[in-house]
Amino acid sequence: MNELYAALLRHDPPAWRAALAAIDPQLHPVDRNATHIWFAFFPLELHLALEAAPDPDALVRRLELKGRWRLDGQIGSSHRFLYAHRYWPQVRSAMESADGSGELADVVREVATTAAPAAGVAPGLLYGIAAVLLMTLRQVGPDAFRAEPATVHLSEARRTSTPDEVLRKRARDDSQGLLGFLRGVRKQWTVTFDEDDPAGRFRAIDGQEIATAARVDRRDFHARDPRCVPNEGPIPVRCRSASCGMCWIGVLGGAEKLSPVDDRDERRRMRVFGYLDSPDERPILRLACQARAHGAVSIVIPPWNGVISTLTKR
Ligand code: FES
What we know:
alpha+beta, 2 domains, two-stranded antiparallel sheet, 14 helices, binds FE2/S2 (inorganic) cluster
């Protein structure tokens, strides 16, 4: 693992982006969005800046970081939302025989291909989780990695679901009942924020902002994530007007069923926060206080927020 880690240290953020672009066509659809979302949630630029900072606490304050932005402490759980998280032990074990020589994309493919027989799946299903594994090693180092048991954090029901079942579930819209055509704007859609938890969902009225809809869930999310406002649901929010950047989310499925990005507010502010500068009308990273639901969607909530555009500007 030490040799592989030393090889990974030689790749800068553009090299990682190039590797991700190279494997993108081969990523299984069930994990394509999830892989890109994970890399946006844990940018190498942020890790490098904190590592190089003479006073990391001052940098944390300057970047207005809140939450858990470091992968240490969430090595085995940060990627729970990838379908292939279930194959983490096999991919991790395959990593032991990789030396990291060659192109970065080929190292990802090599780890996935080595793990595939033990996992009992085609290598393509493992490209995303293999890339995540290598970036995690790059950021936390071999010692922290070895200290973390290779545990799978999944319910039994989710463990037995197939990629096709997950994709079908994400694509399915809620039935509006026999009289649905009479309901007009009263249509309601399921917003799933944890695919592994049957209770990890809430309902949004057609056209309602996701962060507003989330308020109906009155469970104590503040205890789990102090950024969450007590009694205001699982998505951290403050301004509700695209100003603070707390409510950013990744969209695993159903991005096309959200309202288009408003260039003046949401897109401009996403650039200011530095989360992802995408030209897409409906990108896979959104502000939940701006994105309105017009169908069922599956989202994932990042464990931190901040203003990192000075680091991620390309
Ligand atoms: S709650 Fe502040 S940007 Fe959405």
